[in-house]
User: Fold these one by one.
Assistant:
Number 1:
Amino acid sequence: MVNRRYNFTKADLKLREYLEKKRGGKIPDEAFYKLVLKMRKWLDEYIEVIKKWVDEKPWEAEQLKRLVDSWEDREKNKKLYEKLDKIKKLNIAQLKEFLTPLLEKENYTQLDFSKPEMDRDIIINFTVQDNKTDREEYDSRIQLRRLIKRILENTNWRLMSEGIYYRLGILSGRFRGYELEEDLLKLISKDI
């Protein structure tokens, strides 16, 4: 019900209903109209201040927009960010400590890393020795690849796509380490 005399909008009437419930009594039309006019005037002044601020400081306004957008993105992709929080972010030393006992259980020993390549991500070559003498070349490569993929699933490291090479019982390959949140989000979304 829109009051024609005071020209209340539906939003005004909802606000009035809320205030009346909170107050526990009716608000006269004239008093509520004065409140609405005061709020509209305050809102118009506030909008003018924001417009002036945006015109004078566009960089800060852009930063604020990015911040709000990131909050909205986090809210929209809540499950993705929850999974991101669970990822183990390992440095190179931690990676070696993490992998060594798990690889040794499957008879892959002497894990060794070369000097890392620093780019947007970190790329590091590795070698490991297959101590299971009755395992064929193909089986050794495939089993190691599957094992590493499974082990690194919840970390910031991945086996690079070129796979694993085998020569005389020594297997080699490369790991890629992801550090930036945006790269980790892309990595997680691929795995989902």
Number 2:
Amino acid sequence: MLCSGRNVWCEMGRTVSIITPWLNNPQLIQTYEPSVQGAQVIIVDNGSREQWAGEIRKMVDRLNGKYIRNEDNRLFAPANNQGLEVADGEIVLFLNNDIKAYNLVKDVQIDITPKIIGGPSKMKRMVAGVNIPYIEGFCIAAYKSVWEDLGGWNEKDYKGLYWEDNDLCFRALQKGYELKETRWDVWHFNNFTSRNTPGAYDHSAHNQHVFEEMVRNAAL
């Protein structure tokens, strides 16, 4: 079992890696940092301004985590895949930075099993006449081997943001994994980062069309 020095994130149970893309918004550190204690934290900085990147890096150093710097915004799915490549935990949790949580790592260790993809917000969308469940991507966890089996997040077909979590969960259901709504104590400041990211909504309609086509083709 691997441990990470000062912050012993593998102290008990299965190890957990938390992957979070981050762009500016250093004010979120005050709620994010205490929420992720006990995990290996991997921050993928998507081109934050220099002075704010410094604050984010300091947080990662305090957590004894891993900091990956992109000089421009590679967006959500590619950043998650970057983090997945370097994650050491048996379980990997993809987590937004605009959250506040309590006992998150312990709860993840309890609820996530090899066939479960879990998170605190399980929703449904009616797509191409089919009611399809999914776990919202702001907080979603599974074994690292599950994410690898799925090939990670689909960064090839989705431009910009939104619908990537629908795609991920739909592919998981097709492979026989279970989507589980958990009772983790996580508060999400809904769309905080999107509202503060220029162009965040520009490709939502395109992404929706891509997902609808995927569902139609799967039903053939």
